[in-house]
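Input record (one chain):
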Amino acid sequence: MKVRNSLKALKKIPGSQIVRRRGRMYVINKRDPRWKARQG
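The corresponding structure, as predicted from the sequence alone:
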């Protein structure tokens, strides 16, 4: 999982979802798990 300043670019990748958990933004992608990331 990468820690990134902005998750905007990862939104466009097919299958990605943005989730808020415990005050952090996460990108999870079941189709392509290498795009996992968090912000904050």
